[in-house]
Write a structure and sequence with these properties.
globular, 8 helices, two-stranded antiparallel sheet, 7-stranded mixed beta sheet, alpha/beta, 26% helix, Rossmann fold
Length: 274
């Protein structure tokens, strides 16, 4: 296919990409131009997108979307291309600079905005998002269940969740009320386990956790989300499920509110007649 860019435009684009290095996301900008064609992980994260993109509506007009840990904005722009209004958040200002640049080059800046935020900051944002991308973040979090409780409250329709996991696909279903003398069941293959990494994994000190497959499903369920599809390794497409009860909304509400800095006494006073 013949290029739609002049040699001068292509040269300027290449210089801008070079100036914004290093890139973790390889984003295709048209005419064969890519931000990180020699990426160590290949065409990343496009190869992950290919695994679940067909499970997301092709027309997202009228949908709001949230991309947590957006990096250079690959998923943000893909959702914007389908018509969604997207908020991408990340802690790293370098990645956010890349993401804003990419959205502008793809003429999507009116549909996408980017903010420097921690996942925990979402507790202070009102409202919900129709679609949330929560990929490549969970295992880097020191307080993972708090983050998952916060994010789950923001899901209106779908959430795509991905985390590094420990090996094993078994699922063991224990009695709903395990007795104190029945703890040997925890040794069974498929018991939900969240493995803690004290030092480093792959040279990264922020790799804190590796849940097994059973643990991922159990954690999501306690947040009121069910897995509707698992289209690829470590990828879970989830949705709110009326049959599941989010513990952050029930008996654990006061702890959750305290953890996010809200006045739980005021919110819960009516339950005790005060």
């Amino acid at each position: 296919m013949e290029s739609t860019r002049s040699k001068s435009e292509s040269s300027n684009l290449a210089r801008e990409i070079e100036a914004l290095k290093p890139w973790f996301h390889n984003i295709h900008l048209g005419d064969g131009v890519q931000t990180s064609p020699d990426n160590l992980y290949g065409d990343f994260p496009n190869f992950k997108w290919q695994q679940f993109k067909d499970l997301i509506p092709s027309d997202l007009t009228g949908w709001s979307a949230l991309d947590i840990g957006c990096n250079a904005g690959f998923y943000s722009v893909e959702l914007a291309k389908r018509g969604a209004t997207v908020l991408g958040i990340d802690l790293d200002p370098h990645y956010l600079e890349q993401a804003r640049w990419v959205s502008k080059k793809l003429n999507l800046e009116k549909r996408v905005s980017f903010e420097q935020m921690q996942v925990y900051d979402l507790a202070r944002i009102d409202g919900k998002f129709d679609l949330i991308i929560f990929m490549g973040v969970f295992y880097h979090l020191r307080y993972p269940m708090l983050a998952l409780d916060i994010v789950a409250e923001k899901v209106r329709r779908l959430m795509v969740f991905q985390t590094m996991t420990s090996p094993g696909e078994d699922i063991f279903t224990p009695d709903p009320d395990l007795g104190m003398d029945d703890r040997s069941q925890m040794k069974n293959a498929g018991w939900p386990v969240l493995s803690f990494i004290e030092d480093k994994l792959a040279g990264d000190p922020t790799n804190w956790w590796a849940p097994n497959h059973a643990c991922v499903i159990a954690m999501l369920n306690t947040c009121g989300l069910s897995v509707v599809s698992s289209p690829g390794h470590e990828i879970y497409v989830t949705a709110p499920d009326e049959k599941l009860t989010a513990v952050s909304q029930t008996w654990n509400r006061s702890e959750f509110l305290s953890a996010i800095g809200k006045q739980w006494k005021d919110e819960l006073a009516w339950k005790v007649g005060r």
